[in-house]
Design goal:
Blueprint: H1 2-12, H2 14-30, E1 32-33, H3 35-45, E2 52-57, E3 64-65, H4 69-80, E4 85-89, H5 97-102, E5 107-108, H6 118-125, E6 130-131, E7 139-142, H7 146-150, H8 165-170, E8 175-180, H9 187-194, E9 206-211, E10 217-222, E11 232-235, E12 244-247, H10 248-252, H11 259-265, H12 275-286, E13 289-294, E14 297-303, H13 304-322, H14 328-334
Length: 339
């Protein structure tokens, strides 16, 4: 107990540590999430046996998850079954692709930890989970179709293109993005590739090294995403010819509901494109998005095909309208807030 207190004080500060402990104890009583309850919530959203689901989660915002990440994984497996498929990003860096390659350290399929959340790391360690061999943007998958989904990812010229797990999922009718108190995340980069988003990649290709399942060292070439700049989308401004700007995931879908307040606090009003604040309700009314709750969090299930059918034409039109404004140096100089 005393050691825990000392470590908590060192890591968070005394008052912050105490506040954290109070919240944890309250969550154990009033916002407890267990395997059966989560599975029931997922069923309620419309997730069903045989479906493919790309899962993203902010577990701490759900409340007290009894059993931690394993509970979420078990609940997902209970719902979709082995004839379904669960996929999660397991990128070996939370930073830029270029910086990762520049380290010269090969991506090791067997041991490289996922740096995009504890849920993804626990998932990739499961003995029945397979992982793609892409050296910067590997994904992990479970289910009878998992091998088919991740096969050859390392040979794709881009990390999110048509011949990648994301592109294969986009071609299915029964595929979904699950958002557990968080936004769409990595699937939006596939959308950017579909609309030929300007300045998405750095010039040329980079050679990257990886160690495959058998321990063999191999190399491949890949396009490398430009850091930070591709996370901003040009949208109409209330007045004038120059565009306003939105963060990529807010353009795709402002989710969960609390995110709308976060967006305004960052200084984004979308005065000339208020549809971004209405998109959530429009998707829900069309059936593309179902929304529920578990613990103290909000969860959403987004049908991938319906999402792409509705947003891709709009995105294409905006890219064409504002293509000349996607100047790397000018966007960087604006110092747009990101969160």
């Amino acid at each position: 107990m005393y050691q825990e207190l000392a470590e908590g004080r060192k890591r968070h500060g005394f008052s912050a540590y105490l506040k954290r402990q109070v919240h944890l104890r309250l969550d154990r009583v009033f916002a407890r999430v267990d395997r059966g309850g989560l599975a029931a919530s997922l069923h309620g959203l419309g997730l069903k046996r045989g479906s493919t689901v790309v899962a993203h989660a902010a577990l701490s915002r759900l409340g007290y998850v009894d059993g931690g990440p394993d509970t979420v994984i078990d609940a997902l497996q209970d719902v979709v079954g082995r004839d379904g498929c669960i996929m999660m990003p397991t990128f070996p860096t939370a930073g830029s692709m270029a910086a990762l390659i520049d380290t010269g350290v090969p991506f090791d399929y067997r041991t490289a930890p996922s740096k995009v959340g504890i849920l993804t790391e626990v998932f990739r360690r499961r003995p029945d989970v397979v992982r793609s061999l892409h050296p910067t943007n590997a994904v992990a998958a479970w289910g009878d179709r998992a091998e088919e989904l991740v096969a050859g990812h390392e040979n794709s010229p881009t990390p999110y293109g048509p011949d990648t797990p994301y592109g294969r999922i986009a071609g299915q009718n029964d595929s979904y993005v699950l958002m557990l108190e968080t936004h769409i995340h990595s699937f939006l980069h596939h959308l950017q590739e579909r609309v030929a988003f300007p300045n998405l990649f750095l010039d040329g290709e980079r050679e990257a090294t990886y160690i495959d399942r058998s321990g063999n060292t191999r190399t491949t070439k890949t396009k490398v995403m430009r850091p930070r700049i591709p996370y901003f989308v040009a949208i109409p401004q209330a007045e004038g010819q120059d565009p306003d700007w939105a963060i990529l995931h807010d353009f795709g879908l402002i989710f969960p509901e609390r995110r709308a307040d976060d967006v305004r606090k960052l200084g984004y009003s979308f005065e000339g494109y208020q549809g971004l604040f209405r998109r959530r309700d429009q998707f829900a009314k069309s059936g593309a998005l179902t929304i529920g709750g578990v613990g103290k969090g909000e969860i959403g299930l987004l049908n991938v095909r319906s999402f792409l059918d509705r947003i891709e034409p709009e995105f294409n039109g905006l890219i064409e309208r504002y293509r000349d404004h996607y100047d790397v140096d000018k966007i960087a100089a604006m110092n747009l807030p990101y969160s």
